[in-house]
Structure formats: C-alpha cells, structure tokens
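Usage

Read records sequentially. Each one opens with the input sequence:
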Amino acid sequence: MKHLHGPELSTAARSAVEAVLPWVKNPAEQPRPPRADVAAAVRLSAAVLEELAPGHSVEVRIPPFAAIQCISGLEHRRGTPPNVVQCSPITWLRLVVGVEGLSGSDADTSGTRASAIAEHLPLLRM
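and closes with the structure output:
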C-alpha cells in the first residue's frame, strides 16, 4: 500500500472508518466487520494521529494492527516506552470517532504524557 499523507491520508482513513462505523457505534448489536476492514480503519486512523501529532514521546499500541509514536517531547529509543496508550481495535475506533473519550475508555495509559493524545481526539467527526 502506498504511503499516504495529508488530505489523501485523511480521506482514506475516513473511508476506512466509515466502512466499519455501524460496528464501532454499536458493537453489541452489529456483526464484527471483516478483519481486513478493521485493520485498514485502525492503521489509517493511527497514521492520521501520527501525522497530526508528530513526535516520539508517546507510543500508541492497537494490537494486532498498529503501533505508532507521536506527541513531541522527550524521545524514546529502547525498551518499554515511559508513555504508552494501549487499547483494542474497537476501543481505538470509538476514540477516533468520539463515541468514547480517552478518560472514560478501557484504554490502558501509563506515563505523564500518555493523556496528551486526548487533545487530538476525536480524529474524525462522523
């Protein structure tokens, strides 16, 4: 897949998230979309955050689909980063579209800078 930037990335991320949006908004009532669709929505939306908040002080992990570094500040190079946000694909996508806020979600956050990603959420308004 071609590496996207700027408006192309935003458009691709929006399309990917729209494809899984019924499940994101109501996971208990909607069937889980195909794995490839969930993966695309997670990876592209994580790339949007990485582009909007460049840096290496916070690692955002959405296993098994994505891990990015973002937020300017002290850089982390080896071992476990001091500032981590980790969540499931469904939680991540609910954060992306604003169905949940970071503080009210089941995302695991550690470190003093981890909550800085909340300043960039929701990434996409749908």
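Summary fields computed downstream for this record:
- The longest helix spans residues 6-25.
- The chain has three helices and four strands.
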